[in-house]
Structure formats: C-alpha cells, structure tokens
Design brief:
Blueprint lengths: L2 H14 L1 H39 L4 E6 L14 H14 L8 H8 L4 E6 L2 E8 L2 E10 L14 E2 L9 E5 H7 L11 E9 L3 E2 L5 E2 L2 E14 L7 H5 L3 E4 H7 L7 H8 L7 E6 L5 H10 L2 E4 L2 H43 L1 H9 L4 H44 L12 H27 L3 H6 L2
Parallel strand pairs: 4-11, 6-10
Antiparallel strand pairs: 1-12, 1-13, 2-12, 3-4, 3-7, 5-10, 6-11, 7-10, 8-9
C-alpha cells in the first residue's frame, strides 16, 4: 500500500471519530503545553542569568596584574638558621625584576590569538566642582567599546560618549543627585570642573634624590549621561564610578598609579606602567586559553569563566527536572492514545478482516494505525505549543504587572526557542508512536476469518 493511500485512509478514520480524536489530541496538547511551559520557564531563567552575563561581557574579560618574576635556583636544605637567612637573602637578590605591565605588554596581549581588545584600567583622582558643590572622587576611564554593555546598556538620562576625544563625562545616579540637589536630569548638557594633579618632568634634588613637580590643573567636562548601577557583576561594574570619562582622556590628564613616589615616577617615564589591565576575548570559550598564555608571559591573570560552567550545569539539571515534571501530563495523555486506538480496533475489526481478505498484509494494517497515532501526536504537539505559548504570555503579563508595581523591572519569564518547539513536536510524535504500537500490533495479528465474522 502506498504511503499516500495509508495517509488518506488514516485521516478518514480519524474524521469518522471526530469527538474521540479531538479529546485524545487535546490530552496530548495539554501534556505538551505542560512540558513546554516548564522547560520554557527554565530556559527563560537561564537567559535572564547567564544570557545577560554573557552579553554584558563578564565571562569574556580577563584582569591582568604585574607579577614578580621568579629567579634563581633552590639550593640544598640548610638546617642552620644563619645559613637559611643567607640563602633567603641570596634568593631575593637573584629574583628577577618585576615584569612591567606597560604599553609593550598591552601590544603583546593584543597579538595573542582570540584576543578582541586590551585596555588599561585608569582611575584619576579629581576634585569635582559645580556651583557651590565640591567633592574629591575618582574619575574612571571607560573605553568606547563599553557602549551598550553592562551598566551602560541603559542610561537613566542622556547617552553614552559620542567619541573618545570630547571632554565629556558620565555621572553615577547617586553622585549626580548629590551634585544637583536631587535633580540629576538637570545636569545633562551642563559643564562641571575637574581639578587634578598635573605632573611635570621629573627633577633631581641637590642630594641626588629623584622627585617630581605637581601642580593643580583644571578642565571642564560636559555631562552627557547619568548611569544607574544595576545589580549583578558586569564589566561595566568594574568601570563604574562616581565619574566616568573616555579612556583616552583619562590616560591624557592623569596617571594610573599614585600609590607612591616610585610608582609616580614610572608613570612620568617613557615606559608608562599600569596597575591592572583588562583583556577581552572574542568568545567566552577562549578565556581559559588566553588566560594561560598571559600567565606564561609572567603576569597574574584572573577571570570568572569557571563560574559560567558551574552555572550551566545547574541550569541543565533544572531544565531536566522541569522537563520530567512536565512529561507526567504527556505520559497520562499517551494512555488516552492507547485507549483510542484499542476502541478503533474494536469498531473496525470487520473492516480489518476485509482489508486482509483482499490482499492487505500485517504491515499495511500496522502502518495505518501507527500513522493515525502519529497524526494525533502531531496535531496535539502543534496545538500544545500554541497553548503553552498563550498561557505563558498571560502568566508573563500578570507577573510583570506585579513586578512593576513593586518597582522591579519587567522580565521575560517564558522563552520558547525553535529547538524547544521542534523537540516538543518530536517528543509528541515519539510518545504517540510508542503508545500506538501495541494497538497496531494487535490489529495486525487479527485473524481475517474471525474478523469477518465479527459483528
């Protein structure tokens, strides 16, 4: 029997029992809707947690600091205290110099395969003045690549820097409220004054001790945006400060390290060094390899990529648990398919006997019932996805309304990706075929003579 004939015959049989077929398909649809609803909730939670973190760039960032290069060989064990002290002193003298975290190191990091961007973390001590307001704080340099990422995804007022050459700044919402007496939006477009220490060329005193001349300089910056820090880690969180200026401007007006005189002199030398550097990779999967290569160069490197793997495992277990709970209703629906097929056999026993008498074999009979079962699963799966999506939208709207009344931002609580839709339909077909296999085999084993005698 041709497949087209089998399909046509199966559809005719289902149409003759519309009510029973509809109720069975509805049972499958409810099971699929339950399964899709459970899993889509887990997928949405994963997207809210891991997706936002991945988009914000937390897991594709590596923090690099300078490390002391080890040197010298360990000698034999000394039991004498004097010998141990002398050995420790020799080891300290033999230790290699600290690997400089300078512009040359930044170029080396940029050349590592998989690295997307490298920039130093620069924080400039400034005095912010606006009208009668004056306060000392730190201005953090923000690269242009941070636009639309982390805390800079959504501005409370204004916008991100237009370019890195403007004398523009961003203020935190809390700091802006202090500056403007509770009206932060009024600062957008206004100019505030930065007072900072400008260092001149290093000098040497009469005693030969190196020193440096510092003088106060002032510069006006226009406020272009107000930023409110969101909960959770993000690369923007590392750069978030009371005052944020373009990284190029931060490197121009200030120094990266004011921890001591030697550090300050290093900043003024031709070989400028940095306290910390951020290395961003193209993909989160490249973080571990890049981090290892940076450590091999003699630097300290740190990332939180390991946290991503543990979070993924936790959400996989959550999705499996929700999927198992959602499958209970589909398992119950499979019993309805078995019942429908068995009743169909009892009603069509004589028809099966006629089919076998005119040349139909067991495989043809079995195929008809399996096609009928799969059609019930297909109809139920498609309708179940639509039902699960509709119920999810209603619950999502109600939940977001409640969240907004509590001052919490709205969120998408149900997310149905294409693979979940395809998997739900495929799972419905498999369950239907398994449920219909027993009735199909029972129909195929009917004796044609006994079937013809059946009333």
């Amino acid at each position: 029997m041709r497949l087209a004939d089998t399909l046509s015959l199966a559809l005719r049989n289902l149409r003759e029992a519309k009510l029973r077929t509809s109720l069975t398909s509805l049972g499958v649809a409810i099971g699929i809707a339950s399964l899709v609803g459970m899993v889509s909730f887990g997928v949405a939670m994963q997207d809210q947690v891991l997706g936002n973190l991945l988009r914000s760039g937390v897991f594709d960032s590596i923090t690099v600091t300078a490390a002391q290069r080890a040197g010298g060989q360990r000698g034999r064990r000394n039991d004498n205290a004097v010998e141990r002290a002398r050995s420790a002193a020799d080891s300290a003298r033999q230790a290699g110099p600290r690997v400089p975290l300078d512009d040359a190191a930044l170029k080396t990091f940029s050349a590592i395969p998989g690295v997307k961007e490298v920039y130093p973390d620069v924080r400039v001590p400034v005095e912010v003045s606006y009208g009668d307001f004056s306060e000392f704080t730190g201005a953090t340099g923000v690269p242009m690549s941070a636009r639309g990422q982390g805390v800079f995804q959504r501005m409370s007022f204004g916008q991100f820097f237009a370019n890195e050459t403007d004398d523009a700044c961003l203020l935190s919402l809390e700091f802006a409220k202090r500056v403007s007496d509770g009206k932060p939006e009024s600062l957008v477009g206004k100019e505030i004054t930065f007072g900072y220490a400008a260092a001149s060329t290093p000098v040497t005193s009469e005693t030969g001790v190196p020193g440096v001349n510092l003088q106060r300089s002032e510069r006006k910056f226009r406020v272009v945006g107000i930023v409110e820090r969101q909960a959770g880690p993000s690369p923007g969180g590392a750069m978030f400060a009371a005052v944020m200026i373009p990284l190029a401007r931060a490197r121009e007006i200030g120094v990266a390290d004011l921890s001591g005189a030697q550090a300050l002199l290093r900043q003024l030398s031709a070989q400028r060094v940095y306290t910390t550097v951020t290395v961003k990779v193209n993909r989160a999967q490249d973080t571990e390899a890049v981090e290892k290569k940076i450590k091999d160069l003699g630097f300290n490197a740190f990332s939180i990529a390991d946290l991503l793997e543990s979070q993924k495992k936790a959400f996989i277990l959550l999705d499996l648990l929700l999927g198992l709970v959602g499958s209970i209703a589909l398992t119950v629906a499979s019993l309805g398919i078995v019942n429908t097929m068995v009743m169909s056999i009892l009603e069509r026993t004589r028809e099966i006997g006629v089919m076998k008498a005119v040349g139909g074999d067991d495989a043809d009979v079995r195929k008809i019932f399996l096609v009928e079962a799969s059609l019930i699963g297909l109809f139920g799966g498609v309708f179940g996805i639509a039902l699960g999506w509709a119920v999810g939208r209603v619950i999502n709207a109600g939940a977001n309304y409640y969240l907004q009344t509590q001052g919490v931002p709205a969120a998408n609580l149900f997310l149905i990706p294409w693979w979940l839709m395809a998997g739900a339909i495929g799972f419905a077909l498999i369950v239907s075929l398994v449920a219909g296999s027993f009735p199909a085999m029972r129909a195929a084993r009917l004796d044609p003579i006994q079937a013809l005698r059946h009333d």
